[in-house]
Anaerobic selenocysteine-containing dehydrogenase
Amino acid sequence: MPVTRTMCPMNCHPTACGMEVTVEGDRVTIVGDESNPDSQGFLCMRGRAAHGLVGNPDRLLTPLVRETRSGPWREVGWDAALDRIAEAMERVGPQAVGVWQGHGNMANDYGVSLKRGQMERFANLYGCHHWNSAMVCWGLGAFGLGITGAIETNFKEDLGDNSDYVILWGANTVSQAHTLREVERAKRRGARIVVIDVRRTEAGALADEVLLVRPGTDAALALAMMHVIVGEGLQDAAYVAAHTVGFDALADHLRPFTPEWGAARTGLPPERIVALARDYAAAAPAMIVLGGSSIHKGENGWHAARAIGCLPALTGQFGRPGGGIGPRHGARSHGAGFADLSAPERRTAPLIPNQMEAILEALESGAVKAFISIGSNLLSSFPDTTRVRRALARAELVVAYDLFENQTIREAADIVLPGTIWLEEIGVKATNGWVHLTEPVLPPAGQARPAYEIYTGLAARLGVADVYPWPDQAAAIDAALDHPGTGGATVAGLRANGGRMPLAVSPVGHVTQVFATPSGKVEFLSARAETWGLPPLPVAPEPEDTGLRLAHGRSFAHFHSFYDNGRVLPALAAREPEPVLWVAPGDAGARGLSDGDWAEMWNARGTFRAKLRVTPRIPEGTVWIRDGWPGLNAVTDATALLPEAALDAFPFPVGQSSFAARVELRPAP
């Protein structure tokens, strides 16, 4: 039987696993690809569960429409569905239409963003609004690092080969299995592993030391560490002088942020903060692996990433094998890049900012009357679910393109279009060091179609030219790969090379010591931030002092909200059949709650029911839950964290809302 190489449809970037697929009649067999240079045959439980997408009885296989959002669905053809969408778009006009792509449409192009480029090309040529879902995940943390200049990362293999000291900072690497493998390899070489988190995570089992901090206090810990490093003269003075801006201002700024101050904020003993700072400054080399969405959802916001990004500059770790910032979700290596297919230069209409608050305000005000969701689940992924539900209810038309029903489809959609799974269309994915072709092995099931047929179908009806200038999707991939960072990769070249090619990138970030700032140096003091109305130096905003602090994170069985939050995949649903909320014994006892009880988490915004796991692995004052459960965001905050002037500073979207939540617990009714 012929074997086809592809990539796992879970977007665990920078972990991305190779698969080998065989088809024999109706039987599809999927195993790990041992020849894949990143995964080496490994598939986690999410990847092994992906076979459940094939022949899944819950899959959407025909377009659906309904007359009211509480009414029944009826099947229609693609032409009828597209006619109805185009009629509504003509009625409201391009500036009242918004298109949003989520991770569910990136199952076979993550890292390359081919499909996002095609979506944005349609929006730019038609004149409607488009937004990018990276703001839900990693964009806000990247903004904090970007202000400092530290947006490039080192390879995971560089960590395994060279790091002598590794801090997993808010990075429970269950979502980065290959990174965890390299952490294990570094530990076997003798590297010291430190985990900083809000609970004792699975990654903590590898650690030589686990430091539990209160949610929202990571920036305070980084500032207190910098106070020790600068106060004791442990910084790399030559590196600071050559490659940074604003050290003297930073040194004065750090004086109040003593270890005792940091202890009061974080809950750590001051002596442990001192020891951490000294150990990190003395290590040669030391790497920080920074968490993705979880560390930046809450009172930290982007401040944690900004403060943490200063540490490798103070100690001369950037551009050094084994140093700097390690692999993180959404980051790229030095020299990486892909061609932009979105034709931004041809756009003539203004854009509503790529910010959660701006999107909600546009729906609430009626500025956006038609909303098209491509592989996303707004009601699950945006904070303050009640507000999002009301905002979507005001839209005249809500369209969803997806594989399965989800909360947004069930509650808010008027039209549903069925999408193809990763085995039914050609694609291309990138890891930090490689680009991989994903070949189709199955015909589209039912009436499922790839997303670009939405844009071509609407463009034909709306009279928009040049939306899809390629003869087929393979040619579109070639256009996306036409960038120096790919090393000349093409679909033909990838096929000739077994489906993969190395990217023309450096395994060490910032190897040229040029940083993404106006000065080209690491900016402790950022005049640019000040012009945006943001603090010119890293700060740790004072957290609220009431209620339990809600923290979010990942788990082995979950990553994003697509595949109906994993509920349609039997293996994942069985692993996590219900939401589980971690709570400390003292906090549970004070509220008359016990392990295994169902409790209601509540605040002024809303409520959410979960089963309690009462455990000493989380400190008092903190509760933790895996994110992505439908309804969880009823309690989280939708307040915007950045001014509009700062939203276009970097080539990635940063307009995330707070997601912070102070909650209380009571027995569930």
In short: The chain has four domains: 3-53, 64-137+356-502, 139-328, 548-667. The first strand starts at residue 4 and ends at 7. The mean pLDDT is 94.
